[in-house]
Design goal:
The complex is a heterodimer of chains A (about 280) and B (about 300).
Chain A (H helix, E strand, L loop, with lengths): L11 H29 L19 H8 L1 H34 L5 H12 L3 H14 L6 H5 L6 H12 L4 H8 L4 H12 L1 H17 L2 H6 L8 H10 L5 H21 L1 H11 L4
Helix pairs in contact in A: 1-13, 2-3, 2-13, 3-7, 3-10, 3-12, 4-7, 8-9, 10-13, 10-14, 12-13
Chain B lengths: L5 H36 L2 E2 L6 E2 L3 H7 L2 H35 L4 H16 L2 H21 L17 H26 L3 H9 L4 H28 L4 H6 L11 H10 L4 H26 L5
Antiparallel strand pairs in B: 1-2
Classes of the chains: A mainly alpha (about 280), B mainly alpha (about 300).
Chain lengths: ~280, ~300
Amino acid sequence: MAKVKGRPKTGALFRIAAYSSTILSLVIYFFPFYLLVVISLHGNIFAQPPELVPANPDFSGYVAIFTNPAFFEWIMNSFIYTIGISLGTIIMSSFTGYAFSRLDFPGKTQLFWLVLGLMMIPAVASYIPLYVMLAKMKLLNTYWGIIIPPIASPYSAFLMKQSFDAIPKDYEEVAYIDGASRPTILFRVILPIAKPALITLALFQFVWNWNNFAWPLFVATSPRMWNLPLGIWNMVWSYTRDFWTLAAGGVVLMLVPFVMYLIGVEYFLRGIVVTGLKK
Amino acid sequence: MVEKGKRRRRLEARDAYLMILPFLVLMSVFSLFPIFQGISLSFYRVGLPEDKYIGLKNYERALVDDVLALTLKNTVFYGITLMLGIVLCILPALLVNSVAMGNRPRLRWVFQAAILLPIVISWVTLGSAWNWIFLIGGGALAQTGRPGAISISPLAQASTALPTVGLLTVWSTLGYNTILFLAGLRGIPKVMYEAAQIDGASNWQTFRHVTLPLLKPMLTFMVVTGFIGAFQIFDPVATLTNGGPGWYSASIMFYTVRQAWYALDYGYAAVLGLVVVAIVFTLSVIQFRLIYKRYV
């Protein structure tokens, strides 16, 4: 709100409204996560009144997850997909962003238009033909088939171009006159300056790919290739009654993005503001 | 910049092509080609022993498909819900901002974490959590033994599933919207508020005549993005209700995926996918013209 120093008085009504909406929104936002943790610790939520602080927390749900071979496989797949796709995307969009931001070449405008155009096509809609195509290439249920297609991300290339655009050109002119090659300029001059943008992209990519379940839903048809979200989702909708293990899975699933978030709150905020990135 | 020699320019172009080549190849194969592949699929019945050309049959089917009409209606409902969510949240966001974003770093931190969690955490987790909340709430209500108490989740009833999913989607995007919103607020020069204060404007008058008009560009962006977002809703539907009961809460994107995924009807799913692409593309171009004028 208006940050006016020394405002004579703020209405009592305004203050009551402000404080109550703050408290209410905190409850609405934290409660689901809190509840999930309670269930995963075998809190008896079906008691009357529900037991909201588990009297004797039971970690067997977590033990089950890490000892169950299926769960363990899903977690490992999640890590493989996330790291593979994120790394590939970051490297590729750095090169592409640099070329679009700094270099002059025939067809640049048209190609950039193509990137912008593809940014406006919802990815999920293209998954259907992509599925048919990958099936013909015999790439379904393979790590390559899952990791390679999302790497050329127009969104990420656009983000990197935007952040390179903000860097003054003088730095690299000096390096260029000194005889440095393009890759040297990119890695030694540009990327160190663009570090905040790189971290933003890395965090977003990591969270996206970790959470993604529409893409694996298409290309990972065999349960052995599922990632954690897909695995848990399938268990929920096959009406498994083992809530505690599922909740523990949900907690493990949210732990990774949560830690990422704690590491880089400012980067997330920056990323959202700069590009309007959204999951 | 230094005047470029011919040789230097050629070298530059070579470097540029080398740098974007891998991206271009992958983008052409995995983003561009599937669009054309989708158009061609839409004329076929995909199946064994081989795909059969059926002309415009898939399109004819789309024109009389009741489920498509229903899911389109649902999607527009989600779009309106998301847009309303943005507009209605301005005031609460401002109120909360005045408390949480002041000189209280710890409260600010907690608050930021709260509103950002639904953005970073998977819908698979969110969906299960909300389903359980309703399960517990329903159980508790049933136990009070009041006549007419609901014992089943609002997510499982035909009349309430759609609004509930819409509401929870708004819940999950609120943090994102608030951040955009605050970024817009930060862009408003302090002088404006000082002037308003000197003129003796009340909080409401300041909001109405200073804040709101200056936020208009940001609001346009958010409202249009919200509406476009509705056509891409898949995760909330899949995790909260799995489209049910029946198709009552299914979005068009969910219906599309279902056609491919459970009905294995890739030709028809391709038609539905093209409908989504056409709508989203049109809306995005309009948005781009409104906001990123410098590119168009």
